[in-house]
């Protein structure tokens, strides 16, 4: 881990060191309502300069669904080469339990996660395991809303597959809870959770493999840059996988870091579980 984080105003001074970029989506490319124009332009310039850009998301849906969402939000297609999601990894985990009845904890918008799989959905009382994609209503509920249900799952020793390890996400300036908050609450009462996305290795291995296939060559870990806005997922995952890391401070940690001086920022990084190599307010060229 670096002893200090290099503060940047743009990515241009350091991007020449890298051949592959694994970039978070929500909080870096868009805020759930609109794209960040400078971030999209920076990614497009990276690609024009020969860097392969794979968007890596903890979204609990297949990549095809996220591509549609990005188009609707107005994220330009020249900002990325490929997409890998937590949903893609979760589908593999579900496929390995083919035929077992599951309880889906999450909104119907996430049902594409199960499409085409031998994954019969049943009521909570009949599930042999749980697939959590989020809260049924993330505008009004919290993990505490599910305390009684989670206690029942723990008594029955059910495994919970968490298809989105994020605790919260910034939706147009408002923090809303994600599936990771439920999985964490489940673990805290002794339940067993399996995480499909960042910061865990499987999603990085899939993204790196995808990037290498697109390039037609292997890429050294030292030549891969991971960009994200969350210490717990994006930066921790990058560090664990031996990748370079760039943190966008204007995402979910904005309230903690927004008023800090450069020296105070270094102190803040020192208190975190993992320190990024680089940091900037928002991704820009």
UniProtKB/TrEMBL annotation:
<dbReference type="Pfam" id="PF13344">
    <property type="entry name" value="Hydrolase_6"/>
</dbReference>
<dbReference type="GO" id="GO:0016787">
    <property type="term" value="F:hydrolase activity"/>
</dbReference>
<dbReference type="InterPro" id="IPR036412">
    <property type="entry name" value="HAD-like_sf"/>
</dbReference>
<dbReference type="InterPro" id="IPR006356">
    <property type="entry name" value="HAD-SF_hydro_IIA_hyp3"/>
</dbReference>
<dbReference type="InterPro" id="IPR006357">
    <property type="entry name" value="HAD-SF_hydro_IIA"/>
</dbReference>
<dbReference type="Pfam" id="PF13242">
    <property type="entry name" value="Hydrolase_like"/>
</dbReference>
<dbReference type="InterPro" id="IPR023214">
    <property type="entry name" value="HAD_sf"/>
</dbReference>
<protein>
    <submittedName>
        <fullName>TIGR01459 family HAD-type hydrolase</fullName>
    </submittedName>
</protein>
<keyword id="KW-0378">Hydrolase</keyword>
